[in-house]
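Quick log. Single chain, no ligands specified.
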Amino acid sequence: MKNAANIFDGEGYRTRLANLIYLRLMTRKWIGYADILADDNKGSTANDYRYNRSYNAIYGELKKAFMDVRKAIRRVEGDNAIEEDGCGRSGKRFRYVGKVADPP
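-> predicted structure:
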């Protein structure tokens, strides 16, 4: 298991997802799993993934990367630094509301 402190360093798929997640969270806008998949696959939109079950193979890595980023931010900012809303793949979303501009 990767340490949340070094999840941003490396060359693997999970590291790439973690960096995309972090960049999107720092915009302080609501983001979801589909937004990150769309960022990772240029030329696609979040709607391409929002209700599509064909990305089951990478969904596990995406959830782990989200958890790693959230742990890294919460380590610095505390538990209330990231708001969560909704449930499930198509409805769950996150937003960074912390005070520090670059937490990890």
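Helices lie at 13-25, 33-40, 46-50, 56-77, 88-91.
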